[in-house]
Amino acid sequence: MAHVLVIEDDPSIRSSLVRSLGDRGHAVSSARAGLDGLQQALADDPDVVLLDLGLPDLDGHSLLTMLRAVRQTPVIVVTARDDDPSVVRALDAGADDYVVKPFGMDQLEARMRAVLRRTGSDAGEAVLEVGELTIDPASREVVLRGEQLELSRREFDLLHYLAQHAGEVVSKRDVLADVWNQPYGGGERTVDVHLSWLRRKLGESAAHPGYLHSVRGVGIRLAAPADASPDEG
Ligand code: CA
Predict the structure, then answer these.
(1) Ligand 1 center–CA 51 separation, angstroms
(2) Which of 86, 177, 205, 209 has its CA 20 to 30 A from that of 39?
(3) 81 CB-near residues (< 8 Å, 6+ apart)
(4) How many angstroms separate the alpha carbon of residue 44 from the centre of ligand 1?
(5) How many angstroms separate the CA atoms of 44 and 29, rounded?
């Protein structure tokens, strides 16, 4: 469910959108004109804006440009024709996607989901894949080469954190701050212990790393075995 702002001057389209989105469990607000819509977008900070390009007072392109100057709120443009050059202008001005009238609610919802995923509004729940390792934060499942791994809560959180920063060297201090909520350090040994448990479950060791690479004096880096540089140990 998302907070959706509908900016549309056609009363029948606006009310049917508000009703259908509401029926699907979204929180919906609406505006019938551009200036009012822009004000609501700034004041209410919705998750996604559905923007009709043909508005009476302020056209959709100008509204988009003004909104983009201050906010990255995802915007899906609603248009009457898909070969409309104004769609290209809208995408150039920062729209995230568009739908062509008349559109079905399933299509609109799929596009909203895709936009929210891409813009990271639900990035914390994205399934992460590193090599043959798949980490699903929604179900808290980890699969390596087709086999599900049994991880403790902390091991999962640690692996998920490293996967969110895959390819980067993460310091143990950052791990302590973000996984253990201990921003002041002093628990590096705890991290080492959990890393060694995690290594065992991944079927590797510090001496023979597969995914988890210690970078001496700096921290730890998660990478697919083929992507790891050979000088790390
Ligand atoms: Ca219109």
Answers:
(1) 9
(2) 86
(3) 87, 100
(4) 22
(5) 9
- pTM metric for this prediction: 0.55
Sheet holding 169-170, edge to edge: 169-170, 219-222, 212-215
Q: 114 C-alpha to center of ligand 1: Å?
A: 24
Compute the distance from residue 189 Cα to the ligand 1 centre, in Å: 62
Cα–Cα distance measured from residue 121 to residue 71, given in angstroms and rounded to the nearest whole number? 13
Residue 53 CA to ligand 1 centre (angstroms): 6
Residue 49, domain CATH: 3.40.50.2300
Q: How far is the CA of 110 from the centre of ligand 1 (A)?
A: 23
Domain that holds residue 8: 3-120
**b/e code 123-153 from CB counts within 10 Å (16+ = b):** eeeeebebbebbbebeeeebebeeeebebee
Residue 172 maps to a domain: yes
The verdict on residue 32 lying in a domain is yes
Instruction: List pLDDT tens digits, range 153-208.
Output: 889 999 999 998 999 999 998 888 888 877 666 678 889 999 999 999 999 999 99
Say if residue 94 is in the same domain as residue 163: no
Q: Which two tokens stand for residue 126?
A: 């994205």
Q: What's the CA gap between 72 and 15, in Å, rounded?
A: 26
How many separate domains does the chain show?
Answer: 2
Locate 97 and state its tokens: 């996607």
Question: Quick check: is 196 in a domain?
Answer: yes
Q: How far is the CA of 52 from the centre of ligand 1 (A)?
A: 6
